């Protein structure tokens, strides 16, 4: 399947529109500004750690979206897990699958590096 600039442009425009809608909504919440997470950063180092945890070479990541309740408002939170490919499926790696001699990732990596706190320069998705 060939990707064209037009296809990328429409995906970008959809992302811009959806992210603006989310920012507008979360900024209306009566919650502390540092809890208004609008994005999560995963560095190459983070991804390498995630894909090599527990002494296993993992094949992908899956992001789950949860909610944290703050001042009676549901605020979305991202949780990322490594996955192992099994045929055509990707199965999540869970703590019980990691041997005691190896490590399971800490909270900061599984949840990413949130913005605000770890933000980049302003662009159409984050301003």
Question: Gist?
Answer:
With 127 residues, the protein is α+β, with helices and mostly antiparallel strands. 28% of the residues lie in helices and 28% in strands. It has a domain at 31-115.
Question: Can you describe this structure?
Answer:
- The chain is of the alpha+beta class and 127 residues long.
- It has a domain at 31-115.
- The protein has three helices and five strands, in the order H-E-H-E-E-E-H-E.
- The protein has helices at 5-27, 44-51, 107-110, and strands spanning 39-41, 60-70, 73-86, 89-92, 113-115.
- The strands form two sheets. Strands 2-3-4 form a three-stranded antiparallel sheet, with no helix packed on it.
- The radius of gyration is 17 Å and the shape is globular.
What structural keywords apply?
alpha+beta; 3-stranded antiparallel beta sheet; 3 helices; 5 strands
